[in-house]
Amino acid sequence: MKTFRLYWFFTLLLLLTGCNQKDDVNEIFSSGQTWHWSNSYSTSDWKDDNNYNSTLTRDEVAKINDSQDSYNIIFKEDGTVEGNGSNFSFTGTWSANGEDQSFSIQLKPNGNRSGLDKTFYDEISNAKFYRGSSRTIKLFNLDKNHYIQFYPKGFND
What we know:
The chain is of the alpha+beta class. It is 27% helix and 35% strand.
């Protein structure tokens, strides 16, 4: 009987502390954490983390990861966002829906964007869906076949 009660106690505990999508949105986007671009990928299955191909060259990835002061984004709890590339910065607004993992962002850039700066800006601007956790964010395009990935700043140090 004691084992039976213990079983139900843990079952109830799991139900009460289960994953809440709204909490996930807050954990991912509202922590005030600085996120650093790590790479960009194409995929044929947006939920399969092992099914992807890098869309950047090794030199581009090295350039991104060599500078932890560039290619960063911060999602704030009040729905604002700020970030920077190598030669430009931006501010704007964001929202995310934990039910369908949809994502919306509007950016106001300041400075010139070309090369990796343009890629960084365009991929964030075109994001319509997200997947993530406190360790990684993936922002997907409308077709869910391309994403830009972020890690917490300093993760690769």
